[in-house]
Amino acid sequence: MSEQVLHVKKPGWFTRNVFNRLLAWLTRRGLSVWGSRVLAVRGRKSGQWRQTPVNVLTLDGERYLVAPRGHVQWTHNMREAGGGRLILGKHVEEFAATEVADDEKPVVLRSYLKRWKAEVGVFFRGVGPDSTDEQLREIAPDHPVFRIQAR
Known about the structure:
- Helix content is about 30%, strand content about 30%.
- Helix 3 (about 105-120) crosses helix 4 (about 135-140).
- The chain has one domain (about 15-150): Electron Transport, Fmn-binding Protein, Chain A (Pnp Oxidase, Chain A), CATH 2.30.110.
- Strands 1-2-3-6-5-4 form a six-stranded antiparallel beta barrel.
- It is of the alpha+beta class.
């Protein structure tokens, strides 16, 4: 899959410098906030481990990572690496990742937005948990989703 440049909305100063850092700090100390984890994925060019805070969604016994800000560095790295690590305090879980097709995303995006709309809703261009399947399908290409399985 080629790298895509679609409607990526960069986080604001407060999100980047306060909220994300606080969330990552708490998660690294073992305190999960609404399902938060620190995602570690090897950089596709450098090979170095890159970390970012994420929300892990559990839906019908499956776990997912959703990229609310679109096709960002961690999503490109995930495609290349095929997996990574989820970190919560001292607990590190290795996982394999499979990208979800756009047609399968509406149910995952709806569930994700039900749980985290207050936190990430601004990145979904007005689409929310009560939107139609068609509206969710329309934004699906802008939001990578990965199904994850423990290794």
